[in-house]
Design goal:
With 270 residues, the chain is mostly helical. It has 14 helices and 4 strands. The longest helix has 16 residues. It is globular.
Length: 270
């Protein structure tokens, strides 16, 4: 995803959602969802040039100190990288729709509840129309004024940002990239996701009575066994948080096969 084009013009006026995306894509050269390393240095150099009107020298000690101060201020989780939401706090983005998302869907549980509401057909994906409804609710909660044109722009921009496979819809893990890293519990499952065949065997094992769903207690046991099998140490607080987030997908405490599948299966069939 290398980008050798001239960088988008950084300035201190308000950016539209589309301009913000162009900037993000230019500096996130490898497309991994972060600006880090050389990408981060290039971004900070351009930002300093926009602020001061002169080019900065990255080898300069003063540049390095300013960059350190900059990261201390904006790198909220201190991972040495800039996430999309952190960039939205740095650049004056129109309506600041990404921060708007963070304000009203700030936890993984709230995110999963919103997902369940807007994945109306229970397909395991949110298509452009469902996403439009999701964003419309979000903007109303934030008391933001918008028209159909602006809503369409935001929908298009979010799809461009997070639709990694270009199928015109967002899977759960794609949409979850809107969450802060520390709240994105789905990242914990990336390395332990199972095949469709394994998933169905696991679900059948824990669905003791063959009802087609598991309850919270059965999910607790399933998660503990899954983490133990993969030699992952998860404390009680984190486990409780993961369980709460996943159960937000459930129907009155009944977590059906298709709902758990989109969380722990590599290739969900829904």
């Amino acid at each position: 995803m290398a980008n050798n084009a001239q960088p988008p013009q950084l300035h201190l006026a308000e950016f539209t959602a589309e301009q913000f995306l162009d900037i993000w894509r230019h500096f996130d050269v490898d497309g991994n969802g972060y600006i880090e390393g050389k990408e981060l240095e290039n971004f900070f150099r351009e930002l300093e040039a926009a602020r001061r009107g002169t080019r900065a020298d990255p080898s300069n000690v003063a540049f390095r100190e300013k960059m350190k101060e900059f990261m201390h201020k904006f790198d909220k989780n201190a991972d040495g990288k800039i996430e999309m939401s952190e960039l939205a706090q740095i650049l004056p983005t129109e309506e600041n729709f990404l921060l708007c998302f963070r304000m009203f869907v700030g936890s993984s549980t709230e995110f999963m509840e919103a997902w369940r509401k807007h994945d109306e057909d229970r397909s395991g994906y949110i298509d452009s129309n469902e996403l439009k409804g999701f964003l419309s609710d979000l903007l109303q909660k934030a008391n933001r004024q918008y028209d159909d044109k602006k809503l369409n722009e935001y929908t298009h921009t979010i799809l461009r940002m997070f639709d990694l496979n270009g199928d015109g819809k967002l899977g759960l893990s794609e949409m979850a990239r809107l969450l802060p890293t520390e709240e994105n519990f789905l990242l914990k499952f990336q390395s332990i996701k199972v095949s469709a065949e394994q998933f169905h065997s696991i679900f059948n094992y824990y669905d003791k009575d063959g009802s087609g769903y598991i309850d919270e207690q059965e999910l607790d046991t399933l998660l503990k066994d899954l983490f133990e099998k993969n030699k992952m140490v998860v404390d009680a607080k984190s486990l409780s948080s993961y369980k709460k987030s996943i159960m937000a997908l459930s129907d009155g405490g009944k977590l059906y096969r298709t709902e758990l599948e989109i969380v722990i299966c590599k290739d969900p069939s829904v």
